[in-house]
Design a protein that fits this description.
The structure is a single chain. With about 325 residues, this protein is an alpha/beta fold. The protein folds into two domains: about 140 residues, Nucleotidyltransferase, domain 5, CATH 3.30.420; about 170 residues, ATPase, nucleotide binding domain (Nucleotidyltransferase, domain 5), CATH 3.30.420. The chain contains ten helices and 14 strands. It is globular, with a radius of gyration of 20 Å. The two termini are about 30 Å apart. The protein binds zinc ion (ZN). The site of zinc ion has 6 residues, from loops. Zinc ion (ZN) binds next to loops.
Length: about 325
């Protein structure tokens, strides 16, 4: 790292963990012994009202700033990708969707200035992941890029002309909270009939537990470490091996995802849809049926442009890479204005 290019502290603040790394404007992660330096803390079981998440945030930041990778003088901004709806202009969490106690009260720019002495920029984690994939990953060269992250919930982000589309108060592109069945009853967010009512990891696992109870010999049970607690990974592994119990479940959840992505495509006309998150690791057993199902949900399917559906390229670090790169871009905008 002999050049003087700027670097940022990139942080991904999720519902169960904080992950951090040092990121440059090309979306590269600082490396130690050839490996990207990524520090992660899990904090399962946080108590409401505790400031443990804030403590971990500070600790991870200090560790990275002290790491022998980038000279401290070259680290000039902090970017935070936060699970929740973030008001980007004020740097605050508006709606804490992911239950990260202690984070909803933070004014991130003020907090990071105090802790690290650096300007900070906070955005929704789905927006940060989309920013990274559009600039450095699977969406590079395409415009607009729509990105969906299939994790505990379903996050989304839209990049138009290289910039994040945030909507009126930062809440745009909540693909997990678009309607796939208006008669489907309440979503955990309080809305009605949203994709996440059925597509969130927890919801799928509940459904799998029922299936396993009914068909104890099915491959979903066999492929789960604890058969009574079947996992989404086991579901997709079972489909790969033509399990008749797994097949209709995957078919149903992918139908809902296709409906949501089709609606998004009719409204936004993305050139490409990038799919990331843990579930995207399932590979073609997820992507092939999703591509086949998408056209029927798009406006005027016979004549419409069909966006390509591609797997994300940056893996689990997409959010922190996007957060860091976004912070550098915003800092240079602020300097030139
Ligand atoms: Zn919802």
């Amino acid at each position: 790292m002999s050049d003087k290019s700027p670097w940022a502290l990139g942080l991904d603040i999720g519902g169960t963990k904080i992950v951090g790394g040092l990121v440059n404007a090309q979306g590269e992660l600082a490396r130690v012994n050839g490996k990207p330096l990524v520090i992660k803390y899990e904090y399962d079981g946080l108590v409401e009202g505790s400031n443990r998440a804030q403590e971990l945030l500070v600790r991870i930041g200090q560790q990275l700033l002290a790491a022998p990778t980038v000279p401290p003088a070259q680290i000039c901004a902090v970017g935070l990708g936060v699970a929740g709806i973030v008001d980007f202009t004020r740097g605050r969490v508006v709606i804490d969707s992911a239950n990260v106690p202690g984070m909803e009260e933070i004014d991130f720019p003020v907090f990071c200035a105090e802790q690290f002495g650096l300007p900070a920029y906070a955005d929704n984690d789905g927006n940060c992941a989309a920013y990274a994939e559009a600039h450095f990953g699977a969406g590079r060269g395409c415009d607009p890029v729509f990105c969906a992250t299939l994790g505990a919930g379903v996050g989304g982000g839209l990049i138009v002309g290289g910039e994040i589309y945030r909507g009126f108060f930062g809440s745009a592109m909540e693909i997990g909270h678009t309607v796939v069945n208006y008669q489907g009853g309440p979503c955990p967010c309080g809305g009605t009939g949203h994709l996440e009512k059925w597509f969130a990891t927890e919801a799928i696992e509940r459904r799998l537990a029922q299936a396993v109870q009914e068909y104890p010999g099915c491959l979903i049970a066999q492929y789960s470490a604890i058969p009574q607690q079947p996992t989404v990974e086991a579901l997709f592994a079972a489909v790969r091996d033509d399990d008749p119990v797994a097949q209709p479940i995957v078919d149903d959840i992918l139908e809902m995802l296709a409906a949501a992505l089709g609606t998004a495509s009719s409204l936004l006309a993305p050139e490409v849809i990038v799919i990331g998150g843990g579930m995207a690791q399932a590979g073609e057993v997820l992507f092939a049926p999703l591509r086949a199902k998408l056209p029927k949900y798009i406006a005027y399917p016979s004549g419409a442009y069909l966006p390509a559906i591609v797997p994300a390229a940056l893996g689990p670090e997409a959010t922190l890479i996007g957060a860091g790169a976004l912070a550098l871009a915003e800092r240079s905008k602020a300097k030139s204005s």
